[in-house]
Amino acid sequence: MKILVFAIGTRGDVQPFIAVGTALQARGHAVTLSAPKSFTAMVEASGLTPAPLPVDFQALIEEPEIKAAMQSFSGKLKAYRWASEIMNEQMSEMWRIGCEVEPDLILHHFKGQMAPYIGRRFNSPSIPLMLQPGFMPTREYPQFLIASRNLGGLGNLMSHKLIMALTRMGTKMMTKRWLKVSDADVGPLMDPVAAYDPNGPGKRLHAYSDLLVPRPKAWPDTEILTGYPFTAPEDYAPSDELAAFLEDGERPIYVGFGSMPGIDHDRTTRALLGALESTGRRAVVATGWGGIKDVETNGRIHVLEAVPHSWLFPRVAAVVHHGGSGTTHEGLRWGKPSVICPLFADQPFFGERVAALGAGPRPIHQKRLTAEKLAAAIEQALSPAVMARAAEIGAQMRAEDGVGRIVEVIEGAA
Question: 2-231+401-413 has which CATH code?
Answer without folding.
Answer: 3.40.50.2000
